[in-house]
Structures are given as structure tokens and as C-alpha cells.
Amino acid sequence: IVLILGLGIIVLKKKNKKEPEVVVPEVEVIDSIDTFDYKLNDNETEYYKELFNSLKDLLSHDDYDEEEYASLVGKLFLCDFYDLNSKVMKSDVGGTQFVYSSYRENFEKGAIDTVYKSVESNVYGDRNQVLPIVTGVEVSSIYSDSFSYNYDIDYDAYYLNMNISYETDLDYPTSVSLVLIHNEDKLEIAKMETN
After folding, report:
1. H/E run at residue 163
2. What is the spatial distance between Cα 48 and Cα 160, in angstroms, rounded to a whole number?
């Protein structure tokens, strides 16, 4: 009887012992471009925030330059996607709001299995891992041409060749090609290749 009572007490203590609760830092939306459904989160880098403000200013005009719009979307996407240092965990894939909506879920899965695969969790703010910080993105060339996707064709898609600068060279891509297609009034990333 004593043995059964002892085991019962041990089992009860283990059940009542709670695992430490994981608190994922909450990200706050601090700005937005409502007509295009773009959002700016408080955890973005200063460089990203500057680019976002440029995009917001550009899109506030009815007669905005669409090529400039394509350039800014490409810069914002690459800045957020490759700036792994600002991510809390590997499932926190950056730049997805600029990815073609029908492809977004597959894109996120692919990113988690490749580029984001080795990102350690920073839920408790104690990550010591050195990760890339994007300091600049430049468009080296841009042109418009047709692009086929999902049994459809965008005759005015934008092809961008872009260069990425990092705070420290950690062997992440520095040259990337993007294709942006129209999804109603929005331009979205339909293809990305590292060069």
C-alpha cells in the first residue's frame, strides 16, 4: 500500500509540474498601404522601413511609375526574405506578402526547407547564431516581357536582376533574378532565381 501511495504521489507531482510556457514575441503592424494590402511590422529593419515608406509614397499617387513600383517590391521582398537576423524562428519567412498569392504557401514551405532551415529559434531572445543582415538591395536591370504561369500569360511582367549587400558576408546570394506579374492592380513575385 505504501509503495502504491508513493508511486501515486510521484505521478501526481509529475502531472502538476508544468512545462515552461513558450511566449512568442508579438509583432505589431505599425503602418500599412491599405489599397494594396501591404503591412509594415515593428520588427523590420530601418532599411526595410525606409523602402516601405518609399513604396507608400509612390502608391499614394494615381499616376505612379509602375517600373518604380516593381523595383520597390523587388527590393522589399529581397530585403525581408534574406534578412534572417530579424526573424524569430525558421517559420517566420520574410517577404511573403509580395509573393504571388496562389504560390505563397508553397513558397513558404520551400523557404523553410532551404534558406530558413538552419535558423535557430530566438523566442527567448537568447540566440547566438550569426545570421545575415541585409544593408542594401539594388536593381541592376529591369525590363518588361511576357511570362506564362498557371495556364495564363502576363504580357507586361517585369524581369529584375538585383544585387544584395549584407553587413557580413555569410555566403548568402548576392545576385538574384525576379519575375513580377500583375495580380489585378498588384505586382507579385512569380519567380525567383539566385545567380
Report:
1. strand 152-166
2. 19
